[in-house]
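Re-run with default settings, no changes from the original entry. Doing this only to confirm the output is reproducible before filing.
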Amino acid sequence: MNLDYSFVIPILNERETLEELYRRLKPVMEALDGPCEVVLVDDGSTDGSYELMAKLHERDPRVKALRLSRNFGHQIALSAGLDHAQGHAVIIMDGDLQDPPEVALELADRWREGYDVVYAVRDERAGE
């Protein structure tokens, strides 16, 4: 498969936000200048997150659902997602929507300008 972009998103008990995450990612994926996938990595969720991830895959085959056998932690879940990502560029984000998926469009623009690594820095976080 020849993909330009892969979103890698570790998931731990995010059933409450998964539909909203997908709802916001879908227009971003459509606005990107190349084909993409979303690699959701379930890191041992106990709230039914994986079952919802599988349903998202049924609705949209660009969504891939990986399931780790137990909770290994955020970094291992990221690593597993990176191992399965097929895009030329990988966008790593959390599944709790603290980081807006729409920022990926700006990151992709910078990557297309020739930068090898692009990252966003939050100016402030509500409550901190």
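The first strand starts at residue 3 and ends at 11. The chain has a mean pLDDT of 94.
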